[in-house]
Amino acid sequence: MKFSQSAALAFAATALAAPSPTTKEQPRQAAGCASAVTLDASTNVWKKYTLHPNSFYRKEVEAAVEQISDSSLAAAAKKVADVGSFLWLDTIENIGKLEPALQDVPCNNILGLVIYDLPGRDCAAKASNGELKVGELSRYKTEYIDKVVSILKAHPNTAFALVIEPDSLPNLVTNSDLTTCQNSASGYREGVAYALKQLNLPNVVMYLDAGHGGWLGWDANLKPGAEELAKAYKAAGSPKQFRGIATNVAGWNQWDLSPGEFSKASDAKYNSCQNEKTYITTFGAALKSAGMPNHAIIDTGRNGVSGLRKEWGNWCNVNAPGFGQRPTSNTGAELADAFVWVKPGGESDGTSDTSAVRYDSFCGKEDAYKPSPEAGQWNQAYFEMLLKNAKPAF
Ligand code: BGC
């Protein structure tokens, strides 16, 4: 997503502005808590903390509301701004979003952040290829991770939940035939381990991305997948603040639909994880065997409608979706800490412009919505679709 530093500073200035004389009797809500936050990653922190509706998504949604002329739809759209969602730190420049975003986090809220800038990012696709090239691991460490760490350390009174590097390790498990993924592999492994080690701070709880049931849930992928993730966890020194995995990030899978969405596909017999609930249970057991904490958070931001994809692997701007379950820790499954919104609904998964450098053929598929802008950019029509099809409705 395009974001200018000056906009961040302008927003920070607004957020920090002194209270006007008329409001001086009511002191402003200070950011964070009165004292240092200590998150116990051996428990479900979502029972105590609510995912914060971050101010960046709020601004995107508010701008979207302005464009809606139908008043009842506009009123519904407004409510989306109050839903907690993760903030993606997808470039070094976008670390600039962090300080302004933590200014309004109350003590009972947790700010969700996506760590997403590995060298050679998105090795099996093009839509989200990142700014760092293969071989630029030292830049990832010093210019990206270390910078985020210093900001989180400077705000010990605020709670943070991190989703670490979507798609990276799952791609190493299933796309190792691609030269791009072979080239990215060592940087991903060392980079993820470095991130887990450095971000292991008392006010942080960490979840490592584990794809989804239609990815690592295949019988043949469960064990290698669990081992790949556990290797990173152990290489990081088994960090105390590590809680488990994030699944269905930017995904479309249903939580507990049974029989599952692709249970009639000819290859369904090779995948017992036909919904995310089964996936986190089955993959969770494999993680346990591999020696890794195995609790999960599940992205339910865009999975309100099922049966939209022609194939399980279709990931780009799937057409006619709806917002899904709102963030909650009431999941009904012991291993599932919370349903969360990780992908900000309305931001694109990738451009449908076939002439763009980051054009990926998945964004041109029959079941992909077109036209769509570059990954991370706002797509008003798509947002309105998510809203109209939301389940539960807004
Ligand atoms: C994009 C990021 C964006 C994120 C959230 C990813 O697909 O590559 O730039 O921040 O989605 O929308």
From TrEMBL:
PROSITE patterns xrefs: GLYCOSYL_HYDROL_F6_1, GLYCOSYL_HYDROL_F6_2
Assigned EC number: 3.2.1.-
Keyword Hydrolase listed: yes
Binding site for substrate: 88, 90, 212, 215, 315, 343, 347
InterPro entries attached to this UniProt entry: Beta_cellobiohydrolase, Beta_cellobiohydrolase_sf, Glyco_hydro_6_CS
Origin: domain of life: Eukaryota
Active site: 122, 167, 349
Signal listed as a keyword: yes
A GO MF term: hydrolase activity, hydrolyzing O-glycosyl compounds
Signal peptide residue numbers: 1-17
GO BP of this protein: cellulose catabolic process
UniProt keyword list: Carbohydrate metabolism, Cellulose degradation, Glycosidase, Hydrolase, Polysaccharide degradation, Signal
Coiled-coil stretches noted in the UniProt entry, renumbered to this chain: none
Similarity field: Belongs to the glycosyl hydrolase family 6.
Protein name, UniProt field: Glucanase
Gene designation per UniProt: CEL6C
